[in-house]
Amino acid sequence: MSLFARHPRFAIAVLVLTFISLLLFVNSGSGHDSLRSSMAFHQSSALYDSLRVEETHYKKMLRQRQELIEKWGPTPDKVISFPSNGEFYTLWDFFLPSFRCPHRIDRVGIMGDGGKWICGLERIAPKKNCVMYSFGINGESSFEADVMQAAPGCELYGYDFSVKSFGPEIEQNPDLKRRAHFFPFALGPKDAYNLGDNPKMYTLRTLMEQNGHDFIDVLKVDIEANEYDALEVFIDSFHGQPLPFGQLQIEVHVYGGSEWEYFPKFLKWWEKLEAAGLRPFFSEPNLVYVNLVRGVYPGLVEYSFINVRGNHELVSNRPSPPPRLSH
């Protein structure tokens, strides 16, 4: 006896469900496309949840920072950045890289001074139009070269008035050199490029506008304590809007006797970066400098920041084009 004759209601239900499934399959275009959409949704939710959790942990660190200030201050103006009277802290203990990058973290470039920690290179590598800016070359370009080799669609814009070209890692590689653009300019808080200005200086926003860029995937800054004013002006120019870069690799310089050794001033600058959406996910003290200049305190630290604001590859699975910078 047939299934329909023995169980007519069950057989009808099976036929109805089969028909509905076929309709859904046809309307969706393909079963694989529907599955990919579902996966993208869950991946996006997972990425969002990860960033949200990390932000919660970062806020906890901010409370701990305030507690440390109260312990050794008790106000910021009473905190000594590098104490010498038996206190068990330094400036850098107030600014820990407490935000975990939600992607793979790699140290890119030479294993020594010149290499940097980068977040999510695997998400940047497939981009057809990747942009990297590097301020401070000093004859060593292993970091930039490794990023460009991993991301064949990446163009490099380098700036350094103290040298005449990139390092040999790029200059001796025809493919990388073709995608690299060098300029003997300084990064600063204002534009100064008239006759007699030596070196010529530009703000980061001006350089992006000149190059026709609305977004920088990787921004490296190593400009010997000139990073403070340059970044401050750049951040202020966006008036609270998301900054147009995905991550920042920067060497922070606090030389003995400089104005940035004053804790309240440094704290205010750092909090400006945090308010703009920058979260440090890695730090590495420059021990080469300490070793070469014996007897100095560790005033140079490499920091890597992720920009948690905006809509780019590191914080979204479906990034949209950034808004165009006004000229």
Automatic annotation (TrEMBL):
Cleaved signal peptide residues: 1-31
Keyword set for this entry? Answer: Signal
Cited InterPro entries:
Methyltranfer_dom, METTL24
Q: What range(s) does the Methyltransferase domain occupy?
A: 42-287
Origin superkingdom: Eukaryota
Q: Does the keyword Signal apply?
A: yes
Protein name as annotated:
Methyltransferase domain-containing protein
Give the organism, scientific name. Answer: Paxillus rubicundulus Ve08.2h10
